Amino acid sequence: MAVTWRAFIGPPAPDRRPLENSRRTARSAGQTKGSVERFSHWRIPGPPRHPPRQARRAWDEAARDWDFFVETRKDYHRWEVHGRALVRAVGKVRGLRVLDVGCGQGWFSRQLAGRGARVVGLDWSAGMIAIARGHELRHRLGIEYLQADAAKIGGRWPRRSFDLITSCMAFMDMPRLDEVMTGAARLLRPGGRLVFSVAHPLNTAPGTRWLRPRVGHHGPLLIDGYFDEGPVDVGWKLRGTERILRVPQWHRTLAGWFQLLRKSNLAVTRLWEPRPTALQARQRPGFEGVRRVPFYLIFEARPMPPGWARE
To answer: Cα–Cα 20 to 30 A to 147, which of 191, 215, 219, 288?
Structure first.
Protein backbone atom coordinates (compact mmCIF):
# COMPACT_ATOMS: atom_id res chain seq x y z
CA MET A 1 0.00 0.00 0.00
CA ALA A 2 1.46 3.34 -1.06
CA VAL A 3 1.23 6.09 1.53
CA THR A 4 1.02 9.81 0.87
CA TRP A 5 0.58 12.73 3.23
CA ARG A 6 -2.11 15.14 2.17
CA ALA A 7 -1.30 18.77 2.71
CA PHE A 8 -3.24 21.84 1.67
CA ILE A 9 -2.57 25.17 0.03
CA GLY A 10 -3.81 28.67 0.54
CA PRO A 11 -4.89 31.91 -1.11
CA PRO A 12 -2.89 34.07 -3.49
CA ALA A 13 -3.11 36.88 -0.93
CA PRO A 14 -4.33 36.93 2.68
CA ASP A 15 -7.94 37.66 3.56
CA ARG A 16 -7.70 39.56 6.85
CA ARG A 17 -11.35 39.12 7.86
CA PRO A 18 -11.92 36.51 10.58
CA LEU A 19 -13.46 33.20 9.60
CA GLU A 20 -16.66 32.20 11.36
CA ASN A 21 -15.87 29.81 14.21
CA SER A 22 -17.72 27.76 16.78
CA ARG A 23 -17.04 28.46 20.45
CA ARG A 24 -14.32 25.84 20.46
CA THR A 25 -10.96 27.47 19.71
CA ALA A 26 -7.63 26.32 18.43
CA ARG A 27 -6.22 26.69 21.93
CA SER A 28 -8.85 24.33 23.36
CA ALA A 29 -7.85 21.81 20.71
CA GLY A 30 -4.33 21.77 22.10
CA GLN A 31 -2.61 23.44 19.16
CA THR A 32 0.35 25.76 19.55
CA LYS A 33 2.13 28.06 17.15
CA GLY A 34 4.40 26.08 14.90
CA SER A 35 2.90 22.71 15.82
CA VAL A 36 2.78 20.10 13.07
CA GLU A 37 0.30 17.30 12.74
CA ARG A 38 0.41 15.07 9.71
CA PHE A 39 -2.84 14.27 7.93
CA SER A 40 -2.40 10.67 6.83
CA HIS A 41 -4.06 9.85 3.55
CA TRP A 42 -3.47 6.82 1.40
CA ARG A 43 -4.81 5.03 -1.65
CA ILE A 44 -6.18 1.53 -1.23
CA PRO A 45 -5.32 -0.99 -3.99
CA GLY A 46 -8.13 -1.88 -6.38
CA PRO A 47 -11.25 0.07 -7.38
CA PRO A 48 -14.05 0.74 -4.85
CA ARG A 49 -16.65 -2.05 -4.88
CA HIS A 50 -19.76 0.12 -4.40
CA PRO A 51 -18.62 3.76 -4.61
CA PRO A 52 -21.89 5.76 -4.09
CA ARG A 53 -23.27 3.52 -1.34
CA GLN A 54 -19.86 3.33 0.34
CA ALA A 55 -19.39 7.10 0.28
CA ARG A 56 -22.76 7.96 1.82
CA ARG A 57 -22.38 5.38 4.61
CA ALA A 58 -18.81 6.45 5.39
CA TRP A 59 -19.69 10.15 5.72
CA ASP A 60 -22.73 9.38 7.89
CA GLU A 61 -20.63 7.26 10.24
CA ALA A 62 -17.80 9.79 10.41
CA ALA A 63 -19.98 12.91 10.79
CA ARG A 64 -19.28 13.62 14.48
CA ASP A 65 -15.55 12.97 14.18
CA TRP A 66 -15.38 15.13 11.05
CA ASP A 67 -17.16 17.95 12.88
CA PHE A 68 -14.62 17.71 15.72
CA PHE A 69 -11.76 17.65 13.20
CA VAL A 70 -13.02 20.84 11.55
CA GLU A 71 -14.40 22.84 14.47
CA THR A 72 -11.39 22.34 16.76
CA ARG A 73 -9.13 23.52 13.91
CA LYS A 74 -7.39 20.18 13.68
CA ASP A 75 -8.12 20.74 9.99
CA TYR A 76 -5.84 23.78 10.12
CA HIS A 77 -5.35 23.57 6.36
CA ARG A 78 -8.99 24.60 5.90
CA TRP A 79 -8.90 27.39 8.49
CA GLU A 80 -5.52 28.81 7.55
CA VAL A 81 -5.28 28.30 3.82
CA HIS A 82 -7.56 26.44 1.41
CA GLY A 83 -10.80 27.64 3.02
CA ARG A 84 -9.55 31.21 2.92
CA ALA A 85 -8.64 30.76 -0.74
CA LEU A 86 -12.22 29.84 -1.57
CA VAL A 87 -13.63 32.70 0.52
CA ARG A 88 -11.41 35.08 -1.45
CA ALA A 89 -12.43 33.51 -4.77
CA VAL A 90 -16.17 34.03 -4.19
CA GLY A 91 -15.61 37.69 -3.29
CA LYS A 92 -18.43 39.89 -2.02
CA VAL A 93 -21.59 37.88 -1.35
CA ARG A 94 -23.76 40.23 0.73
CA GLY A 95 -27.38 39.94 -0.39
CA LEU A 96 -26.71 37.09 -2.83
CA ARG A 97 -28.75 33.90 -2.82
CA VAL A 98 -26.23 31.07 -2.62
CA LEU A 99 -26.45 27.29 -2.90
CA ASP A 100 -23.58 25.48 -1.17
CA VAL A 101 -23.39 21.97 -2.65
CA GLY A 102 -21.84 19.19 -0.58
CA CYS A 103 -21.94 21.45 2.46
CA GLY A 104 -21.12 18.69 4.96
CA GLN A 105 -21.38 20.00 8.52
CA GLY A 106 -21.82 23.53 7.22
CA TRP A 107 -18.38 25.09 7.63
CA PHE A 108 -18.31 26.94 4.31
CA SER A 109 -22.05 27.71 4.40
CA ARG A 110 -21.34 29.61 7.63
CA GLN A 111 -18.48 31.52 6.04
CA LEU A 112 -20.88 32.70 3.34
CA ALA A 113 -23.75 33.53 5.69
CA GLY A 114 -21.38 35.39 8.02
CA ARG A 115 -20.56 37.67 5.08
CA GLY A 116 -24.21 38.48 4.39
CA ALA A 117 -25.27 35.81 1.88
CA ARG A 118 -28.65 34.07 1.98
CA VAL A 119 -27.50 30.46 1.99
CA VAL A 120 -29.00 27.06 1.29
CA GLY A 121 -26.66 24.20 2.22
CA LEU A 122 -27.20 20.78 0.66
CA ASP A 123 -25.59 17.42 1.38
CA TRP A 124 -26.60 13.79 0.85
CA SER A 125 -25.32 12.71 4.29
CA ALA A 126 -28.09 12.80 6.87
CA GLY A 127 -25.48 12.72 9.63
CA MET A 128 -23.66 15.77 8.29
CA ILE A 129 -26.89 17.74 7.80
CA ALA A 130 -28.02 16.96 11.35
CA ILE A 131 -24.77 18.45 12.68
CA ALA A 132 -25.02 21.46 10.36
CA ARG A 133 -28.54 22.15 11.64
CA GLY A 134 -27.23 21.89 15.18
CA HIS A 135 -24.68 24.61 14.47
CA GLU A 136 -27.46 26.76 13.04
CA LEU A 137 -29.62 26.29 16.13
CA ARG A 138 -26.75 27.37 18.41
CA HIS A 139 -25.54 30.28 16.27
CA ARG A 140 -28.30 31.44 13.96
CA LEU A 141 -27.17 32.77 10.58
CA GLY A 142 -30.37 32.10 8.61
CA ILE A 143 -29.00 29.08 6.73
CA GLU A 144 -31.43 26.48 5.37
CA TYR A 145 -29.95 22.97 5.31
CA LEU A 146 -31.34 20.21 3.10
CA GLN A 147 -30.48 16.51 3.00
CA ALA A 148 -30.65 15.61 -0.71
CA ASP A 149 -28.72 14.15 -3.62
CA ALA A 150 -26.73 16.89 -5.38
CA ALA A 151 -27.29 15.12 -8.72
CA LYS A 152 -30.96 16.16 -8.50
CA ILE A 153 -30.55 19.87 -7.77
CA GLY A 154 -31.59 20.85 -11.30
CA GLY A 155 -35.15 19.70 -10.67
CA ARG A 156 -35.46 20.89 -7.08
CA TRP A 157 -35.74 24.65 -7.74
CA PRO A 158 -37.02 26.76 -10.65
CA ARG A 159 -34.53 27.88 -13.27
CA ARG A 160 -32.31 30.83 -12.36
CA SER A 161 -32.88 30.53 -8.61
CA PHE A 162 -29.35 31.38 -7.39
CA ASP A 163 -26.78 34.12 -7.88
CA LEU A 164 -23.89 31.90 -6.78
CA ILE A 165 -23.32 28.15 -6.38
CA THR A 166 -20.35 26.98 -4.34
CA SER A 167 -18.69 23.79 -3.22
CA CYS A 168 -15.76 23.42 -0.82
CA MET A 169 -13.68 20.32 -1.52
CA ALA A 170 -16.67 18.09 -2.31
CA PHE A 171 -17.10 17.70 -6.08
CA MET A 172 -14.34 15.09 -6.42
CA ASP A 173 -16.33 12.92 -3.97
CA MET A 174 -19.52 12.89 -6.08
CA PRO A 175 -20.30 9.90 -8.33
CA ARG A 176 -22.72 11.68 -10.74
CA LEU A 177 -20.97 14.99 -11.09
CA ASP A 178 -22.12 15.52 -14.68
CA GLU A 179 -25.71 15.77 -13.41
CA VAL A 180 -24.62 18.10 -10.61
CA MET A 181 -22.95 20.46 -13.09
CA THR A 182 -25.91 20.41 -15.49
CA GLY A 183 -28.23 21.22 -12.60
CA ALA A 184 -25.97 24.03 -11.43
CA ALA A 185 -25.96 25.61 -14.89
CA ARG A 186 -29.76 25.50 -14.92
CA LEU A 187 -30.08 27.14 -11.50
CA LEU A 188 -27.70 30.06 -12.05
CA ARG A 189 -29.16 33.45 -12.83
CA PRO A 190 -27.77 35.55 -15.71
CA GLY A 191 -24.34 36.70 -14.61
CA GLY A 192 -24.26 34.04 -11.89
CA ARG A 193 -21.17 32.01 -11.01
CA LEU A 194 -20.18 28.53 -9.97
CA VAL A 195 -17.10 28.70 -7.69
CA PHE A 196 -15.68 25.51 -6.25
CA SER A 197 -12.50 23.99 -4.87
CA VAL A 198 -11.22 20.45 -5.48
CA ALA A 199 -8.06 18.50 -4.84
CA HIS A 200 -5.64 19.21 -7.66
CA PRO A 201 -5.60 16.46 -10.33
CA LEU A 202 -1.91 15.90 -9.66
CA ASN A 203 -2.88 14.97 -6.12
CA THR A 204 -5.80 12.66 -6.97
CA ALA A 205 -3.98 10.55 -9.59
CA PRO A 206 -4.08 6.94 -8.35
CA GLY A 207 -0.30 6.51 -8.30
CA THR A 208 0.58 9.79 -6.59
CA ARG A 209 2.68 9.58 -3.42
CA TRP A 210 5.40 11.41 -1.55
CA LEU A 211 8.82 9.80 -1.79
CA ARG A 212 11.09 9.51 1.22
CA PRO A 213 12.39 13.01 2.01
CA ARG A 214 16.02 13.78 1.40
CA VAL A 215 15.86 17.14 3.18
CA GLY A 216 13.01 18.75 5.09
CA HIS A 217 9.49 17.48 5.69
CA HIS A 218 8.67 16.27 2.14
CA GLY A 219 10.74 14.69 -0.59
CA PRO A 220 9.67 14.75 -4.25
CA LEU A 221 6.08 13.97 -5.19
CA LEU A 222 5.80 10.99 -7.54
CA ILE A 223 2.85 11.29 -9.94
CA ASP A 224 1.66 8.19 -11.76
CA GLY A 225 -1.61 7.06 -13.31
CA TYR A 226 -2.61 10.64 -14.11
CA PHE A 227 -4.66 9.65 -17.18
CA ASP A 228 -6.46 6.80 -15.37
CA GLU A 229 -9.71 8.64 -14.63
CA GLY A 230 -12.35 7.13 -12.36
CA PRO A 231 -13.01 6.24 -8.72
CA VAL A 232 -10.11 5.59 -6.37
CA ASP A 233 -10.47 4.19 -2.85
CA VAL A 234 -8.74 6.42 -0.31
CA GLY A 235 -8.31 6.33 3.46
CA TRP A 236 -7.83 9.23 5.89
CA LYS A 237 -6.80 9.34 9.53
CA LEU A 238 -8.56 12.34 11.06
CA ARG A 239 -6.26 14.21 13.42
CA GLY A 240 -7.47 14.33 17.00
CA THR A 241 -9.75 11.29 16.62
CA GLU A 242 -9.47 7.53 16.27
CA ARG A 243 -11.42 7.68 13.00
CA ILE A 244 -10.13 6.02 9.84
CA LEU A 245 -12.32 7.42 7.09
CA ARG A 246 -12.40 5.30 3.93
CA VAL A 247 -14.18 6.88 0.95
CA PRO A 248 -14.11 6.76 -2.84
CA GLN A 249 -12.82 9.79 -4.73
CA TRP A 250 -13.24 10.40 -8.47
CA HIS A 251 -10.01 11.33 -10.22
CA ARG A 252 -10.22 13.56 -13.30
CA THR A 253 -7.47 15.11 -15.36
CA LEU A 254 -7.37 18.88 -15.75
CA ALA A 255 -8.77 18.46 -19.27
CA GLY A 256 -11.46 16.21 -17.80
CA TRP A 257 -12.63 18.99 -15.49
CA PHE A 258 -12.77 21.48 -18.37
CA GLN A 259 -14.70 19.06 -20.57
CA LEU A 260 -17.16 18.28 -17.79
CA LEU A 261 -17.92 21.97 -17.30
CA ARG A 262 -18.14 22.67 -21.02
CA LYS A 263 -20.61 19.83 -21.61
CA SER A 264 -22.75 21.37 -18.86
CA ASN A 265 -22.80 24.72 -20.70
CA LEU A 266 -20.37 26.27 -18.23
CA ALA A 267 -17.26 28.22 -19.27
CA VAL A 268 -14.24 28.55 -16.99
CA THR A 269 -13.59 32.25 -16.39
CA ARG A 270 -10.96 32.11 -13.62
CA LEU A 271 -8.64 29.48 -12.21
CA TRP A 272 -6.45 29.47 -9.10
CA GLU A 273 -3.69 27.16 -7.91
CA PRO A 274 -3.03 28.76 -4.52
CA ARG A 275 -0.23 27.73 -2.20
CA PRO A 276 0.87 28.56 1.35
CA THR A 277 2.99 31.58 2.06
CA ALA A 278 6.64 31.32 3.09
CA LEU A 279 5.60 32.38 6.60
CA GLN A 280 3.01 29.61 6.80
CA ALA A 281 5.61 27.06 5.70
CA ARG A 282 7.99 28.25 8.40
CA GLN A 283 5.28 28.02 11.05
CA ARG A 284 4.05 24.61 9.87
CA PRO A 285 6.77 22.53 8.20
CA GLY A 286 4.06 20.26 6.81
CA PHE A 287 3.34 23.00 4.26
CA GLU A 288 6.89 22.90 2.90
CA GLY A 289 6.07 20.33 0.21
CA VAL A 290 3.00 22.14 -1.08
CA ARG A 291 4.91 25.32 -1.69
CA ARG A 292 6.57 23.28 -4.45
CA VAL A 293 3.62 21.17 -5.67
CA PRO A 294 0.01 22.33 -6.38
CA PHE A 295 -2.45 20.53 -4.13
CA TYR A 296 -5.62 22.55 -4.65
CA LEU A 297 -7.51 23.89 -7.61
CA ILE A 298 -10.28 26.50 -7.56
CA PHE A 299 -12.57 27.09 -10.54
CA GLU A 300 -14.88 29.97 -11.36
CA ALA A 301 -17.31 29.13 -14.16
CA ARG A 302 -20.28 30.93 -15.69
CA PRO A 303 -23.13 29.81 -17.98
CA MET A 304 -22.12 30.12 -21.62
CA PRO A 305 -23.89 32.89 -23.54
CA PRO A 306 -26.06 31.89 -26.52
CA GLY A 307 -24.03 31.05 -29.60
CA TRP A 308 -20.97 29.66 -27.81
CA ALA A 309 -19.88 26.31 -29.19
CA ARG A 310 -19.85 23.40 -26.75
CA GLU A 311 -18.16 20.76 -28.87
So the answer is: 191
